[in-house]
UniProtKB/TrEMBL annotation:
<feature type="domain" description="DJ-1/PfpI">
    <location>
        <begin position="3"/>
        <end position="168"/>
    </location>
</feature>
<protein>
    <submittedName>
        <fullName>Type 1 glutamine amidotransferase</fullName>
    </submittedName>
</protein>
<dbReference type="InterPro" id="IPR029062">
    <property type="entry name" value="Class_I_gatase-like"/>
</dbReference>
<keyword id="KW-0808">Transferase</keyword>
<dbReference type="GO" id="GO:0016740">
    <property type="term" value="F:transferase activity"/>
</dbReference>
<dbReference type="InterPro" id="IPR006286">
    <property type="entry name" value="C56_PfpI-like"/>
</dbReference>
<dbReference type="Pfam" id="PF01965">
    <property type="entry name" value="DJ-1_PfpI"/>
</dbReference>
<dbReference type="InterPro" id="IPR002818">
    <property type="entry name" value="DJ-1/PfpI"/>
</dbReference>
<comment type="similarity">
    <text>Belongs to the peptidase C56 family.</text>
</comment>
<keyword id="KW-0315">Glutamine amidotransferase</keyword>
Length: 172
């Protein structure tokens, strides 16, 4: 069954951490909707390999419309976490126990949304201490699946196992 997945994204996202999961999710028949401050904005990956035209502005969409959330890494999550609208959007998925998929620096958005306490997670190493300080159970593993439905990975090297896990999670 096809699912609708929100993707929170702004400039300087890690190119492959968006493009690779997006490709696999689309191949599995799911719909992805990119969300930033305004629809029509063009955001660029930090490697310069990817450019994405944003589908929806944060004020023009509701988290209730989506089955899952994807937060790619790079500098994008750090830029978005200063905006309470994105934090509230992320909180919805946690409160409603909807799947959240994030990699690398993506958990920074979750830290600011104050939803990581007690969750098993991984991330890029330098965000690990932030997760621990916020109460998460951080581990240095290529893939961590929390009982809440949260799926996390560390870096682009982990994308094959991350992509497989998120596609399988949406089959349930």
């Amino acid at each position: 069954m096809s699912k609708k997945i929100a993707v929170l994204l702004t400039d300087l996202f890690e190119d492959s951490e968006y493009t690779s999961p997006a490709e696999e999710l689309k191949k599995a028949g799911h719909e992805l909707v990119t969300i930033e401050k305004e629809a029509g904005n063009v955001v660029k990956g930090k490697q310069g390999d990817a450019e994405v035209t944003i589908d929806k502005g944060i004020d023009d969409t509701k988290p209730e419309e989506y089955d899952a959330l994807l937060i790619p890494g790079g500098f994008s999550p750090d830029k978005l976490r200063a905006d309470d609208r994105f934090l509230e959007f992320v909180r919805h998925f946690d409160q409603e126990k909807k799947p959240i998929f994030t990699i690398c620096h993506g958990p920074q958005l979750m830290i600011n949304a104050k939803i990581v306490e007690g969750k098993k997670m991984t991330s890029v190493k330098q965000v690990g201490i932030d997760l621990i300080n916020a109460g998460a159970k951080w581990e240095d593993s290529e893939l961590v699946i929390d009982e809440s439905g949260l799926i996390t990975s560390r870096t682009p090297d982990d994308l094959p196992v991350f992509n497989k896990a998120i596609v399988e999670a949406l089959e349930k």
